[in-house]
């Protein structure tokens, strides 16, 4: 992880693996990842809260872990 400050205007996309009950929603910023290689992840319920900054490998690991529980 890094402490890189995110740009002001990000387009966040809800994960297709997020639960349908509204309680387990994760969002990420794909355009930012494509432009910088930094994968930003946040809780969709706390949009003004902190977010994680992951490497490509870190993001892949997070996705693998999340999909193993579905």
From TrEMBL:
DUF397 domain sequence ranges: 10-64
Origin superkingdom: Bacteria
Pfam (any one): DUF397
Protein name in UniProt: DUF397 domain-containing protein
Organism: Streptomyces wadayamensis
